[in-house]
Amino acid sequence: MNRPNVFPEDFLWGGATAANQFEGAWDVDGKGPSVIDGLTCSRDMKERFSGTGDYYPSHVGIDFYHRYKEDIALFAEMGFSIFRLSIAWTRIFPNGDETEPNEAGLAFYDKVFDELGKYGIEPLVTISHFEMPQYLVDHYGGWKNRQLVDFYVRFATTLFERYKGKVKYWLTFNEINMATFIPQISIGSVADEGENPEEVMYQALHHQFVASALATKEAKLIDPTNQIGCMIAYAPVYPLSPKPEDIFTAMQKEEEKHFFTDVQVKGYYPDNKLAYFAEKDIHIEAEQGDEEILAAYPVDFISFSYYSSGAASFEETGKKNNGNAMISEKNPYLKESEWGWAIDPLGLRTSLNTLYNRYQVPLMVVENGLGAVDEVVDGKIHDDYRIAYLREHIEAMRDAIVKDGVDLIAYTSWGCIDLVSAGTGEMAKRYGFIYVDRQNDGSGSLNRLKKDSFYWYKDVIASNGTELN
Question: Which residue in 23, 175, 329, 426 is the catalytic one?
Fold first, then answer.
């Protein structure tokens, strides 16, 4: 079999966003409140930047809701062939448990998909991206309640039916493994008095796994050409030393991530997780038929976010690295971003090899980028630091494809247009190729401005990844 010496001709280039971080219009046209809508800017943000005060960043975002035509035109100018976005659950079902959808919400995404179609841009849609209805948390206790499976499947089925022929690529849950780090926005469940918090988390995750499989079933019934993927946050974990205990600790942390892909790709709970449940006296309530559902409806591909790598030691050193909410030992061999995230392009190649060799299904890198403070000088933004970061990571993807035989089919860099940081609620931590004039205190015109990286990425796409200078 001949392998390409560059990116495949049909490789999909684009960018990624999330509804709760860029749409705004949080209470417009019948939309209900989500778990994100009640969050103010974080304490960390207030400490880093003066004069922020309490406000709700997601309420306005960058106002994509009213500026989607302008933004999609800019994505088209860069040459995007794919654009990752999420659908706000509460635009379609404001409380989450309704039997009939909100037509105004459905109509909005019709317009977005039609606009993308006008430019030949393929939508990659995340069905649930940390946007679950607050009502489902307050009245049902979040995902630990089995009823949410039915509510989610109704939501997903509504999308598959409405957007048949407009959307082919779907992701069921964003970074599903983030339940172990940020459960309040991932599963919306907390342990009541007398409950085991870890058991509650895994029970909620079981419901999400079943919901994902049932959504995959419906997607295929409605349109057999639909392609369904899972999505995890991925950071390879290196042993901090050759000490056998460090190597085993790192291996255990790697397996924690693979649990999520094992269930969704292989269709069953791995033996090591079942052994862990037994050791910790964790009991998961599964309904009859759940095992068969997981086995019958695995996903078609794996997508993942990659920002940095981590390190592990049997004996903690006290020196920590925090990358995308995943705390690990600090790796002394790596530089870090302004936010202390380790920069490790080779780690992306490692991740691609690990996932492909284990699962042998197509992969997508659906989040990757550098959060940095950008300075506007004479109406321009010279973000060479972002270009350097992306160049090295794209080179790592190319090597994984060409030298390692990995089946990588798409790359959507995170925050292709500046948006609200999920971790801190700030705007100063910017990822985009397009600058948005909105500041940490909520001020700004919301005007868009192309950065140097905009033109660089345009050349990358036009050359299918061969022009990276």
Answer: 175
